[in-house]
Design a protein that fits this description.
Protein name: Methylamine utilisation protein MauE domain-containing protein
Strand order of the largest sheet: 8-7-6-9-10
Shape: globular
Largest sheet: 5 strands, mixed
Strand content: 5-15%
Membrane topology: Multi-pass membrane protein
Number of strands: 10
Distance between the termini: 53 Å
Domain Methylamine utilisation protein MauE: 3-140
Subcellular location: Membrane
Order of helices and strands: HHHHHHHEEEEEHEHEHEHEEH
Number of helices: 12
Radius of gyration: 25 Å
Keywords: Membrane, Transmembrane, Transmembrane helix
């Protein structure tokens, strides 16, 4: 039992640290996931959950930092009993979320490991159940996990880790994620990712006499009843399926993916930061002079954006895109994305608006 206890101690500690680091790398993405949960719960459980949405970013950084801090505290065995109870409360909460997602098919990606590792709702729930069992076992086998450092040393380590975790999360919010796990990361070719890597193959599931049977070719026997068609190699499917840009005149997706384009992405004018608009406007003029076409892409209505662009003097043609896709492309609102024939050459938070020299330099980097 001593060996099992120490294995669980190491496994739980490391996994919580890893999970927290992945989330705090992209606090805005974690906040978006929390907003999804609050929206679903406000409709299915109680309306008051909607009131949590404005605090999603705070909760994102707080919960991510808590995972890291508790994981480290567990590994150094600081305040072991209290830490294990806090871990138990946290994993019960996560288990409820993942079960709700899986059973009611509400939030199809729990965001447990951000965009780095995608798990299905049932896989996420299974993971949380395993962790729940491990933490319960640790609560009953604490005698095998005696402290190996002074309480003061454990306290100092925990305080330092807490400060660093919060600082890392806040910096990622004020700039961009340290590591971009999404399909729109710098160097990726959007047009290529919109195509399957190989032809998709399917199997057919049909029913006969109450029994399901699978076929790789559709049977000629008419006594079978079609149930569903399932991809055999889903990993070969397009990594990007929802990138579209349009305006009242029609679709402009291909235009965006041709030539040198500087996209100014405004998720929503209602939440757009305007502190660095002067820098963006200066960059727009310099880009036009350098033969780089600036384009705004927003999910706001035409009326709302017209009002916004006149307030901030953003004299750039604007187009529309899906709000969720725009948030996936870049976490900053507004944010800047540089494309050359659909290849992502650069991405900048509005706090890091580049000079035209940096933009030109980015065009020569990340060659395939």
């Amino acid at each position: 039992m001593k060996f099992i206890s120490k294995f669980f101690w190491l496994f739980v500690g490391v996994l919580f640290i890893f999970s927290g680091l992945i989330k705090i790398n992209d606090p805005v993405g974690t906040a978006i996931k929390l907003e999804e949960y609050f929206d679903v719960f406000s409709q299915d459980i109680a309306p008051f959950f909607k009131s949590f949405e404005p605090y999603s970013l705070f909760l994102s950084i707080f919960l991510s930092a808590a995972e890291i801090v508790l994981g480290v505290a567990l590994l150094v065995r600081y305040q072991l009993k209290a830490v294990l109870w806090l871990l138990l409360i946290m994993i019960v909460f996560f288990t409820f979320l993942t079960f709700y997602s899986a059973y009611f098919d509400k939030v199809t990606d729990c965001g447990c490991f951000g965009d780095a590792i995608k798990l299905t709702p049932w896989e996420s729930f299974t993971k949380d159940v395993v962790l729940l069992v491990m933490i319960v076992v640790l609560l009953f086998t604490q005698q095998y996990l005696q402290p190996f450092m002074r309480a003061s040393s454990g306290a100092i380590i925990t305080i330092i880790v807490t400060a660093l975790s919060v600082a890392v999360g806040w910096y990622a919010y004020e700039h961009l994620p340290y590591i971009d796990f999404r399909a729109y990361k710098v160097g990726n070719n959007i047009p290529e990712l919109m195509k399957p890597s190989e032809p998709l193959r399917y199997k057919y599931i049909l029913t006969k006499n109450g029994q399901d049977e699978e076929f790789e070719e559709y049977p000629m026997d008419t006594t079978y009843t079609f149930k569903q068609m399932v991809a055999i190699n889903p990993e070969a499917g397009p990594k990007i399926t929802d990138f579209n840009v349009w305006n009242d005149e029609g679709d402009h997706t291909q235009e965006v993916l041709t030539g040198k384009k500087l996209l100014i992405i405004v998720h929503s004018v209602a939440k757009a930061e305007t502190d660095n608009i002067k820098d963006i406007n200066a960059l727009v003029k310099a880009a036009e002079a350098a033969g780089i076409t600036p384009m705004v892409v927003t999910s706001s209505s035409s009326a709302d954006f017209e009002k916004f662009r006149h307030e901030v003097n953003l004299a750039v043609p604007y187009y529309f895109g899906d709000g969720t896709v725009l948030k996936t492309i870049i976490r900053s609102n507004p944010g800047l994305v540089l494309l050359q024939d659909g290849i992502v050459k650069g991405k900048w938070h509005h706090n890091d608006t580049p000079s035209i020299e940096e933009v030109k330099e980015a065009l020569t980097e990340h060659e395939e």
